[in-house]
Structure formats: C-alpha cells, structure tokens
Amino acid sequence: xxxxxxxxxxxxxxxxxxxxxxxxxxxxxxxxxxxxxxxxxxxxxxxxxxxxxxxxxxxxxxxxxxxxxxxxxxxxxxxxxxxxxxxxxxxxxxxxxxxxxxxxxxxxxxxxxxxxxxxxxxxxxxxxxxxxxxxxxxxxxxxxxxxxxxxxxxxxxxxxxxxxxxxxxxxxxxxxxxxxxxxxxxxxxxxxxxxxxxxxxxxxxxxxxx
Length: 210
Fold this sequence. Notes:
Blueprint: H1 2-21, H2 24-29, H3 47-50, H4 54-59, E1 62-72, E2 77-87, E3 96-105, H5 111-123, E4 127-130, E5 137-146, E6 153-164, E7 167-178, H6 187-204
Antiparallel strand pairs: 1-2, 2-3, 3-7, 4-5, 5-6, 6-7
C-alpha cells in the first residue's frame, strides 16, 4: 500500500520535472501555450479588403480579374490569405502578381520555422537583406530566375517576411521582363512599396509593427 502511494508521489514528481524541463515546443503539445503573444493582431474576414496597398497600387493601378482571399480560424492557428493580379495600364500584356499571408500562432512558437524559411530561401539562391524597424524581425528576399527556354526573359520575385510575437506575415511580388523588349521593373521602388504597404496592413490588423 505504502509502496503504491510512494510510487504515485514519485511519478507525479517526475512528471512535474519533465514538464519544467521539456523544450517549449513540446510543452505546448501538453496544453501549456508556448507561442509568443499575438501582440494585439486580430483576424480579418477579407485580407484583400484590409490590405489597401496604396504604394503598390500606384505602381500597378490596373487590377486584372478579382482578388482571391480566404480566412481560416483554429485554436492553434488563424490564417488569412490574399492574392491579386495587377498591370501598369489597362491592356498591358505584362501582369504582376501580389500575394499576402498572415498567420496568428496560438500554441506553437513560430521563431524556429521563421528562421528556417530564411535559410531555405538562401539555399534557393534568393538574395536576403534584413529590414529594420519592422516587427521583431523582418527580411526581404529577391530572385532573378532566367527562363530556361528563353534566357532573355527574366522571372523576378520579391518577398518580405515579418514576425512579431506570434504573428507571421508574408508579402510577395512577382513579374517578368524580356531583355531588349520590355523595361525591367524598378526593384528599389517595389521593395519600398512592399515594406510600406505591409506596415500599413499590419496596423490595419491591430498591430504596432514599428
């Protein structure tokens, strides 16, 4: 009898020590939240409506088709997404894609995955540059990927990743141009627009990104 009581006490003590010493990601699976605070960010039913994108809109004022968006809610992860296509003028054959994704992590710490995404982009030959005064950490990635069938055509991608507390945000732009036929996009203006519009979007979701 006393052995049974002593064993139960010992087992309880072992479990207590284990919970205190397990890594944060594992503790989260046992019911103890390990994600950083969402810092006031809230879910939007329509991320495209929340994202006014004034700076990118000045570069590409002509929408092509209707924006696409979705929002999902879960006690572990809320996710918002928006994509749209734009052009410089009506009838312009060159279209540019814009993508936005915001995730609110409620149980799992997103910091390790955020760092892994950066390393993954570097492995894919993206040029990475840090962005100051935006969230807890942020960086831009740029890739010029020549067409395999037409080396004169360049497929360009600019991405911006932001993390603040338990919120992670992705903003992306993609387009193309052909040497000698079309003008290359102004990459500095695109970078500046991505950062400015993302900062405005995050404020619209209730955060204080900078």
